[in-house]
Write a structure and sequence with these properties.
By secondary structure, the protein is of the alpha/beta class. It is about 55% helix and about 15% strand. It contains 10 helices and 5 strands, in the order βαβαβαβαβαααααα. The protein has a 5-stranded parallel β-sheet with strand order 2-1-3-4-5, with helices on both faces. The radius of gyration is 23 Å and the shape is elongated. The N terminus is likely disordered.
Length: about 220
Amino acid sequence: MDTSHGAAVQISVFIVSNVRLHRDGLVALLRGCPSINVLGADSVQETQNVLRTTATDVALIDAPSPGASDLVRALRKICARIRILAVGIRETASEVVTCAAAGIDGYVPMDAALGDVVIAIENVVRGELTCSPKVAASLYQCIGSSRASAVSALTTRELQVAELMNLGCPTKEIAWRLGVQPSTAKNHIRNILHKLDVHRRGQAVAKLRTLTGEGFSDA
């Protein structure tokens, strides 16, 4: 949705919380904002029924709990395009990463003011994320560490196999080029898929290209 015209375009918001005081408070605050159209608020269980018949741009949910991933999946199943914003997050890299892992599109910190909530809603509709420079730096470091970890988990031989997979070589050709049996090449490929947490060769190649660059090479 284009929010560049401010109040000319309203963002439809639904508030999801099992704490009535919390959701009623958010409704009262947001209904005074020209750019926000509060469609309603309800518990997690009831929300899933309401949203089936309500066109919603953004769902505000409580800070992630153990069942957050299930809630996010349920909301996406009802409306694939809906943006999900978690409210009341401690602005640390670990909590922000937890939100991302649960499939949440953005967050509102615990100490946010009303204006910050509105900005977060407008940003998440545009596919943007607002976070402090400290959290941004931490997230950057986390991404770098995870990339390094995924690649370093592969042995030298597995990296050689991966390079040949990147060149499009079938299993028999990989075995011939490395001077090993086809069954050994298959085992290496199976290990690569397992370590990269993917199921197909194409997925493994795509992931390695993302992690190391388009033209990755062996060690």
